[in-house]
Amino acid sequence: MDLVGSCVAFVHVSERGSFTLGAAAARIPQPVASRRIAALERHLGGRLFDRSARRAVLTPFGRDMLPSARRLVALAEAMEHDAERARLAPLRLAVPEVCGTRELALLGAAALRRGIHLDLHPAPPPARDDLLHARQVRACVAAVPADEAAWTVPLGLATRAEPRSAAIHLETLRVGRGDVEERRRVWIQPEDDVPHVRDRIRRLGESVGLQPAQVAVASAFTAAAAQVLDSADLLLCSAAQARELGLHWRPAGGVDPVRGYAVAAADGEDAERIERDLAEGLARCLGAADPEEAR
């Protein structure tokens, strides 16, 4: 038996003193209201209305049951209201700062079509993790090694002058002891200031004889880009970022750095839903054009 539906019919009929008017108020046909109230009477073990009267008159038993029925109906309505509010509540998601405004807007639009209201928070990798751990967001796009990633973005080196070779080797930045020429640097942007990217570049630099200061971490992507646009320095970045800056991009010789991303969430269902329903939009934001190819 539909206990809530039966109580709704019972409350409306009792308030209007009519099965016809009560059914209309409950937005159900009159025969349905009658059947629900009859079922409720059988369930409770007593008559709620005096059927001998012309109007719907409550019996003493019905008067005793009416307050409880009203409370049950009110609780059901409150539950429906809370459920609607929960469905419309924004899903706060921390995303990489490298995501473009247009791509994030397209991601938000795709989420709305799936019934997900995103509240996006761009941040660098450590801040995204901190936001999740502090429960300030429900999920984050975390930076992870390539073998743990749902999406990957190959990285290379970009420079103002077009390289003659198919790859850029870090040993070409090495200078001798007697050289007075300013040492060229490789700039790492905050998005790549994570061990599985940064440390590989540093180890390679050390192995080919670069000075520690020749592999530098910038405070912001724009700061790193400014250094490269004003010098012969190199920027560790994706091919898309290089195109955006008008730089010449090549793979890095001797190493294949990769950005890896996966959704992390306090609730596993949130992570699964984001990766399942928003895979294409996130791939576009991250620079991994095809989520299947990027796995």
UniProtKB/TrEMBL annotation:
Domain HTH lysR-type: 1-59
Keywords tagged on the record: DNA-binding, Transcription, Transcription regulation
GO molecular function annotations of the record: DNA-binding transcription factor activity; transcription cis-regulatory region binding
Keyword Transcription in record: yes
Transcription among keywords: yes
One Pfam family per UniProt: HTH_1
Family membership: Belongs to the LysR transcriptional regulatory family.
Domain of life: Bacteria
Record-given protein name: LysR family transcriptional regulator
InterPro entries noted in UniProt: LysR_HTH_N (IPR000847), WH-like_DNA-bd_sf (IPR036388), WH_DNA-bd_sf (IPR036390)
